Task: inverse folding
C-alpha cells in the first residue's frame, strides 16, 4: 500500500529523530522550561527577525488555534473563518468548546478577503450579536491554496482597521513557504499577523508546533496552555525537534523537507493535468484534489491509501492526495502508471 | 411617538397585571414550586393534550433556548439552525457560551426544510466534526413566516430519522397560532417536536415563557435552570401570569391578544400592499418588513418608533413594524396617512 | 400557615407594585434602555456619591454574581469565597459553568478576613494553579452576620495589595444597612469594593437587582448580560421598581422595609434568647438560626413554614427563620407563644 | 547537577526509544487508528483481564482526567477530590474550564475515604447545589501514599452505593503497583473503578498515557478527545511506546522501571530516616517529602535539583525528592553524603 493519505503517516524525519535520540538521557526541567526550547525559540525569533515575540511549543495544531483564541478573546467575542477552515471543519467544535462562536463565510478557494471580512462583520450589529474579535486563516488553506504577500498585507490592514486580530494557522506553513507560486517569506508572515504557528507535525516532527505570539498578546499564556490541557511534561521534546528542523534558517531541514514534498506534488499535479484530470480548487502546495471517475477511485484504493474528499456525484469522486518528506518519486510514478492503466 | 418598535414595549395586559396584583400578598414557596405554577402547568398539559410532559416557567426566551440545548446535548454536539434564527442572530452567542456550535444554513423565508437539514448534516463526517444533536426552529420564524402543519410533521419525521431532537422557539407562538394562514394547532406543535415554549413576554406578560419538555428529556432540568442563572426566586410571578393568559384554552386571553395583533398587522399589511410597497419575506404574522424609500423612512422616524431592519441599499431601507395587543387601530391609520403624505 | 421561610415569599411591596401598575401602559424601548432605568441609575449614583460607576438592572442575584465574575476574569482565574458563600453554596455551580474555580476557605461566621485571603492565595503558586482574580463576599453574609466598616476597608486594602478585585453580593444589602450593629453606609460599601449589587428581590421588589460596577470594569458588560441569558426584554420593569424603592435615598422605602424586617427579627431574636435558645452564628440581620429540639421543630412545622438549616444532630435541629417587609408583629408573637407551649 | 526534580526530566527509556526508532518509517493511519495502538490496547485488556473496556492513548494526564470527566458528567455535576489531588492542585482549573466544580475535602495523607465522600455529599442538598457525579483519586496519591486493595474496594462500593463514578489517576501507577506495601494488582485497580489510566510519561515514555474506560462509559469518547484538543495526529507514537512498556505483562519493562525507582526511593528514605529526618506524609512510592533545615536545603540546591514543597516555616523546609528509572544508586549516595556533611 502506498500512502498519499496525509503528511503525518510516518514518524519523524531521521535527522529529527537523531536529535531526540542524542539528547534523550539529558536531564532538564519540564514543561518547556529547558535549554532546547529556549534555543529553538531564539532560532525562531532570529528567523522571523523579531525579538519581541514570545514562542510557545505546543503539542498540536488544534491546541494552538484554540488556546490562542481562548486567551485573547473576551467571552462575548467570536472568530471569523472560512467555512472550509480547519478550526471550523476539522476540530470537533473545540473552539466553541471554549465558549466562542465561529462566524463562517463561504470563501472561494478557501481564502478570506477584506470583502468577506466585511460580510462577516455585517452580522455584528450590537450587544445582541457576538463581536468579532479574531480572524482565522491558514497558510496554505485547507484547499492547498496560498495567500500572496500583498493579500496578507491587505488582509492584515483590514483587520487592524476593524479592530480584529489576525491569526495564521501554519500547520503546513513549510509547504506554503517553499511553494513555487509563493512570494511571502516567513518574515512577511510574521509581520502580517498577530500570531501564527510553524507546523512541525506535518513536516518532519514526531509532534509539535511552534506558536509565535506578538508582544502584548501573550499575557499569562502558559496558564492558558495548562488550563487547556496542552502542557507537555517533557516539553523539551518539541524544542529539540525544532532545533533540528530550523538549524540553518531558510536553508534548514524544515524548508528542504517541505520543498521536496512540494516538488513531488508538482510532478504528480503535472502528470494528472497532462492526463486531463480536473481538480477541486487551485492548490499549489503538497495537497492535490483531483476529480476521478468513481470506478477508477475504487481500483486505486486497492493499492494506494488516500481520502475521498467528498461524496460521489455524477459518477465522479474528488480525492485528496498528499505528499510529504517521506514520499518517493517512485510512489508518484506508480500512481500515474496505475492511473493510465485504469483510464485506458 | 407611536410604537411599532416591538411587541414588548408596554408592560403586561391589564388582565394579567390584575392577576399579579390580586395574588401579590399571598405567601408561597419560591423558585416555581408554588400552586400557581402548578395550576398553570396543568392548564398547559390540558391545552396540549399531553399529561406526560414537564412544564418549566422561564424568565425569557434565550434562557429557554440555551438551557434546554445545554441540558440535552453532549459536549461535542451541535445545533442546526437557520442563519436568521434568533438563537444565532440575536442571542450574543449564548448557546456557544455553553460550548456548542450552531451549524447555520441559509434558509429561504427563515424556514428550515428536510433538505436543509441534509445539507447541514453533510458537514458532519466523523469524530473531527461536531455531531448535530438538535434542530432549532421558531414558530413563527424571525421573518414572521410560519410552518404549516405538514411542514412541521415532515421536519419532525426527518429529525427523528436522523436522530436529532427538534426544538421550537415560541417567543411569538400566539401570533402563529392565530394567524389566518395557520393550520397547526398547539397540539400539533406539541406533537411535532421534543420541546417548545409558549412565549409570554411578547403576548401580554410582564415577563416569562412556559417551556414544555417531552417525557424523558427533562432529567435534572431544574438543576440546569439554576446552573444557567435562570431560576427566579419569586417564580410564581410567571405562573400567575400564565394562569391569567391561558384560562379558557383556545379561547383564552393568550389567543385573543395574539389574534388582535395579527388583525391589526393584516390591516397594515393590506394597506401597504395597496400602496404598492414591497416586503422582505412573506410574513403573515405580527411583524412586517416593508421596504421604503430612505427619505420616507427618515420622516416616519420622527413620529413612529421602529427598527431599520437592514442598511440602506439603492435608496431603499427595509424596516420592521410590529403590532401587539396594545396597538390601536388609530396607530395603523396614522401610519398609513403619514405614509400617503410622504409618498405623494 | 405563617411564613418565616424566606424574604421572597410574597410579591412586591404595595408601593412598588403601584409603580408597576401606574407605568404599565407606557411604551418604552426594551432591554433596560428606557427612562425608568436611566432615572433609577441616576438615583443610585447620587445615593452612593459616585457618578463614574455604571449601573445595570439584573433579573437576579446569581446573574449578577456570575455575569460580573465572567466578565472581569481571564479564563485561568479563580474566585475566592467562603465555603458558606452563596456563590459556592446555592448557585448550582453557575460560576464554574463559566469556566472558573471557586477557591473556598472555611470562614468563621461566614466572613472573609485578610488572613483567609492569604490562606487562599497560598494555593496559588504558578502556572499550574489558577490565579485568584476576584474575592466574593456578601453583606450580610449567608449566616446573617455583617462586615463592619473597618473590616471592609481592611479587606479591600488587602485585595488591592494582592491585585484582587472585591465584589459584594448585596442580595440582602438593605438588611445590613439598617441593622443596629452596622456602621457601614452604602457609600462605604461602594467605596470598599469594585462592584456590588443592591438586592431588590428580597426587599420589596417582584424581582430585580441593581448591579453597580466601578469605572473601567464595565467594558462591553451589556454583551455579557445577553451572552449569559440575563437580558430582560421589558427591562424597565426593574428600573420602575428601583425608582419606587430608592426615592428618598437613605429615607427611602428600601431602607424602611429593611429596617422593619430587622426590627421584627430583633424582637424574635430577643424572644428566643430570653428563652435560652442558642443560635448558629451571630446573625444580626433578618435571618435567625435558632437551634431547637427536634420534637419542637416537628410541631412548629405544622403551623409555621421555615427551612431546617442542617440535619438533626444529638436531638437538635438548627432552623432558619427569616423576617421580611411583609412579616407582622403578630407572626412573631404567634411563634413565641407556640414555642412556649411546646417547651413546657 | 543531580536531578531529584521529577520523574520526567529525561526522555524515554532506551528500550522505548528503540521501539520508536525501529517503527519510525512505517506508514500508518493517524489519530490512534493504527496497528500499534490496537496491539497495545489488546495487551492492556489482557493485562487487566477485561476485554470489554475501551483503551484510548492520550497525550498527558490532565487530558485524561479532564476529558473523561467532561465526557461522563452532565453540566450540573461536580467532581469530589482531595484538596491535594492533582486535578485540583496542579491543573490550573482545567476541569472547571469544562464547567464543573471540584468539591474538595481535606484528606489525611491525600487519601479519600468513604467518610470523606459522605462529608462531600453533605454539601449537596438539592437543585441549588451541584450534584456530585464523579470521585477522583490517584494511585499513588500526590503525597506518594497508596490505597490498599480493601480500601479501593470499600471506596468503590461507597461510590456505587451513592451513584458516583470512581476515576483513578494513574500518572505514577507503576510506582504504586511495584511498591513494597502494595497489595492491589492492576486487575484490582481495573475492577475497583469506572476508568483509570496507566501513566507512561513518568515511567519510561516520551509522553503518553493509556486511559481505560469501562464498557458503557465510552460513548463518542473520540469526539471528546478531539473536542478537548487532545487528539494526536501521529497517535501511533503512544501505542508504540506502550507496546514496548507492557510487553511481558507484570514482568514487563513498565513494572521493572517502576520497581527500580521504588527501590532507590526506599534506599533514600531509609537513609533519611536513619538520620532522623522527618517526612511530610507517609509516602511509600517514588516521591519523598523530607523536612530539612532551611540552611541545609539552600546548600543542597547547589548540587541537587528538586522542588521545595512548601514555604519555609520555623526554619524548616519540606522538599520533594523523586526517583525515576534513570536515577542511579550513586545519585542517592551523593545526596546522603552531602547531607551528612551539611548536618554535621
Result:
Amino acid at each position: 500500500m502506498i500512502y498519499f493519505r496525509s503528511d503525518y503517516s510516518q514518524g519523524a524525519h531521521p535527522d529529527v529523530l537523531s536529535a531526540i535520540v542524542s539528547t534523550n538521557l539529558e536531564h532538564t526541567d519540564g514543561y518547556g522550561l529547558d535549554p532546547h526550547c529556549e534555543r529553538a525559540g531564539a532560532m525562531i525569533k532570529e528567523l522571523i527577525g523579531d525579538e519581541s515575540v514570545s514562542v510557545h511549543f505546543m503539542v498540536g495544531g488544534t491546541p494552538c488555534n484554540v488556546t490562542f483564541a481562548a486567551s485573547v478573546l473576551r467571552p462575548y467575542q467570536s472568530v471569523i473563518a472560512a467555512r472550509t477552515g480547519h478550526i471550523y471543519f476539522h476540530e470537533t467544535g473545540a473552539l466553541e468548546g471554549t465558549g466562542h462562536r465561529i462566524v463562517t463565510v463561504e470563501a472561494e478557494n478557501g481564502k478570506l478577503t477584506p470583502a468577506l471580512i466585511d460580510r462577516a462583520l455585517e452580522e455584528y450589529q450590537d450587544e445582541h450579536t457576538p463581536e468579532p474579535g479574531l480572524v482565522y486563516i491558514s497558510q496554505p488553506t485547507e484547499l492547498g491554496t496560498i495567500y500572496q504577500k500583498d493579500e496578507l498585507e491587505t488582509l492584515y490592514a483590514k483587520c487592524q482597521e476593524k479592530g480584529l486580530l489576525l491569526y495564521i494557522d501554519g500547520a503546513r506553513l513549510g509547504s506554503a513557504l517553499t511553494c513555487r507560486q509563493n512570494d511571502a517569506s516567513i518574515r512577511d508572515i510574521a509581520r502580517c499577523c498577530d500570531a501564527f504557528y510553524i507546523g512541525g507535525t506535518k513536516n518532519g516532527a514526531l509532534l509539535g508546533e511552534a506558536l509565535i505570539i506578538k508582544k502584548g498578546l501573550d499575557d499569562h499564556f502558559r496558564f492558558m496552555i495548562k488550563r487547556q490541557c496542552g502542557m507537555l511534561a517533557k516539553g523539551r521534546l518539541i524544542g529539540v525537534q525544532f532545533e533540528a528542523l530550523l538549524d540553518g534558517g531558510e536553508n534548514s531541514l524544515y524548508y528542504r523537507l517541505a520543498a521536496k514534498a512540494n516538488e513531488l506534488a508538482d510532478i504528480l499535479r503535472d502528470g494528472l493535468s497532462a492526463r486531463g484530470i480536473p481538480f477541486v480548487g487551485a492548490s499549489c502546495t503538497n495537497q492535490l484534489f483531483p476529480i476521478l471517475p468513481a470506478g477508477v477511485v475504487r481500483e486505486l484504493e486497492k493499492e494506494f491509501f488516500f481520502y475521498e474528499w467528498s461524496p460521489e456525484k455524477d459518477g465522479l469522486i474528488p480525492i485528496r492526495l498528499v505528499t510529504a518528506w517521506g514520499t518517493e518519486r517512485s510512489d508518484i510514478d506508480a500512481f500515474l502508471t496505475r492511473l493510465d492503466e485504469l483510464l485506458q
Remarks:
- Chain A is about 40% helix and 15% strand.
- Residues 114 and 155 of chain A are 6 Å apart (CA to CA).
- Chain A touches chain D through 50 residues (CB under 8 Å).
- The two ends of chain A are 22 Å apart (CA to CA).
